[in-house]
Structures are given as C-alpha cells and as structure tokens.
Amino acid sequence: MFSLDRSLLPAANQFLADLDTRWRAATGLNNRADYSINYSPICPCPLLVLGLNPGGSADNFQLVDVAAGGSEYIEGYGPTSQNIGRLLQRALGVSSPEGIRTVQGSNVIWRRSPSMQSLGIRVPVAAKETAPHLVRLISYVGPRAILFGGKAAYDAFLGAHKARVVTQGETILGPNGSSQAVYFGHSALSLPYLSGNVEAFIVLHPSKGLRDLAVNRLKFHFARLFAA
C-alpha cells in the first residue's frame, strides 16, 4: 500500500514546486535552508505523519531528495527520522523499508529551527503561517489517519486548523523525565477542508525513542484502517 509508483513522481514534483513557490511568496523565506515542506514524494496516501517543525539550523541540516523518490524515513540522517521509519515499519508490519516509502510526512510549522526557543516567532503564529499551505498538502494527500510526533504537534495543529475533536479515544501517559507525557493518544478529528473525519494518533516525540506500548496500539489501529 505504501510502496512507490514512480510514474507518480512528475505530478508529485509539479505539486511540490507550486507549493514551494507559494510558500516563498507568502513568507519571504527564499533560502531552502530555512524551511522544509515534505519528507516523501507528495502523492495521495491514507497515512500522514506530522511533527511540530523541522529541526537543525541553516548551516547544519541535510535534505533527502524526495523529487527522486527519497523518503526522510528511509534515507534520513537524524535519529528522529530513523525512529519514525522504524516505528512505521513495526506498526504497519512491513519487513522492507520500501513498504513505507510513500507514507507522507510534514510538519505543523515549516520554519526550521534547532529548538523551539530559537524559532523566532511564537508557535501559534508559526503554525497559522504554515496552515494555508499545509491545508493544500493535506487536501491533496487525503489522509484517513494522521500520526503526530508528540502532543505539542497535535495541540498546535488543532489550534491552527480549526480542528474539532469528534471523538476522544484512549490516552496513555508515561514518564518523561520528572513529568508525564503522552505515550499514545487516539482521537477522531473533523477538519473544515476534508469531507470525512480523520483519525489522529499521538506518540511520544520520536527523538526520545520508541515505546512498545505505542507500537502495539498503532499496530491494532493500522490493521483496522489499512487492511488490504
């Protein structure tokens, strides 16, 4: 289901070029080092992964060539990308990385920063700046499920996209240093620009490793959603 049909690449690259042009015109960010849009070839897909914002700095980042069919979750360099790739393979039950190549990936905020403190603008403002462009991407992809890498990404998305929580499912907490964090969360969202509800899942930020509990819950739900 998530392997790449390379005949889709010309349309994917044209859509990305148009999205990139509109983003640059709207924000004035013309240096590719300052932002990131997508982590895999853009194509219709039932599963989308959203983080909060792209990490790294303008002089310390690397890009995967998605125009050639690359995926950040397969050829990516950082531990966050690699952990998401491992999570997807385990949760989808695929043995080869090729089985996750078209899982869509992006962020609620497209501005790059090494930390949220160095973002330069408040998270809600940055999320609203990205929202109309991310809406175009999500509308094109048409996901049935969105997997959020951390509750901060989920919360920022809800606010910027006027999402309505239709059903609140289970929430499982676990230790995160001296506090508690969401290890797994599940809800159904209504988005004003999609005709049907989208199932939303939250896992602990992937930079902090994988939790078997979350992997197992995702396995259950993904089997239900993406059965062949």
List the helices and strands and how they pair.
Elements: H1 9-27, E1 47-51, H2 72-75, H3 79-92, E2 104-107, H4 123-141, E3 145-149, H5 151-160, E4 164-176, E5 179-190, E6 198-203, H6 212-225
Parallel strand pairs: 1-2, 1-3, 3-6
Antiparallel strand pairs: 4-5, 5-6
Helix pairs in contact: 1-4, 3-6, 4-5
Account of the 3D structure:
With 228 residues, the chain is α/β, with parallel strands linked by helices. The protein has a single domain, classed as Uracil-DNA glycosylase-like domain (Uracil-DNA Glycosylase, subunit E, 3-Layer(aba) Sandwich). It has six helices and six strands; from the N terminus they run αβααβαβαβββα. The protein has helices at 9-27, 72-75, 79-92, 123-141, 151-160, 212-225, and strands at 47-51, 104-107, 145-149, 164-176, 179-190, 198-203. The protein has a six-stranded mixed beta sheet, with helices on both faces. Strand 4 and strand 5 form a beta hairpin. Helix 1 (9-27) runs antiparallel to helix 4 (123-141), helix 3 packs across helix 6 and helix 4 (123-141) crosses helix 5. The longest helix has 19 residues, at 9-27. The termini are close together. The mean pLDDT is 94.
